[in-house]
Amino acid sequence: MSPQQIQEATHYLLQSTQDFRPRCGIILGTGLAGLAQEIDVHYSISYEDIPHFPVSTVEFHSGKLLFGVLAGQRVVCMQGRFHYYEGYSMPQITFPVRVMKQLGVGTLFVSNAAGGMNPNYRVSDLMVIRDHISFLLPQSPLTGTHYPEFGDRFPDMCDPYDLDLVQKALDIAQQHQIRAHAGVYVGVPGPQLETRAEYRLLRLLGADAVGMSTVPEIIVAHQMGIRCFGLSVVTDMGLPDTLEKADIQKIIAAAMAAEPGMTTIIKNLIASLDQHG
Ligand code: HPA
Asked: What is the pLDDT of residues 21-30, one digit of tens each?
């Protein structure tokens, strides 16, 4: 997706929102839409109306970009995100992040549902992402033509997740008695879940949780100099020796059970941006 397409989408959004300039971007994961209800929404724009935005699949026909205020900050929130397993290309999946940058977003908050592989984790625990593994995905979102205005051709990935935000999130969790860990997220293409052998391998690689999203968006955001924060909800346990048949209803219920804790952490983090930039 070219810089011109990004400019056209940005221009449309600025025109449709009377130049609303969000400071934070939010991308909500499966079963975690509740945070959107906390936003004092000023503008709600359907994805299909935004030039060059990926068109929605059957999975969500109500993709919307919400502009409003959360915890005293101007935010833009993606209600409905794009996954590789739906057939989108990596540049399509990450297009909204590039548009967010043009709108003025400096910090990105991403949530997702993930399979827990660290044996200390339990279903409905939260995992603050402190690092990720990207190379099991079929392609990097940075593959292909390089546009220097996006950032480096070979961007550094030393600390893609802001370590101050990681620590603050763990502190907030402790204050509110929310079970939260800091861990490594591995991104996989999906849509099938992992075999026992795959969970065993992913654990050997050093991952604590596995999921089908987030990594492409974070790579692109980090390339553009956006500060990133990622939060996973453990919706099922991927322990090879005691693996049970996956039940999507249970996975969604586990995400919903963790939603109040996730909302508390993200709201408090956003509120804290005032003091610490
Ligand atoms: N694997 C991959 N993605 C997931 C899982 C899982 O076990 N649970 C929720 N998303």
From this structure: 999 999 998 7
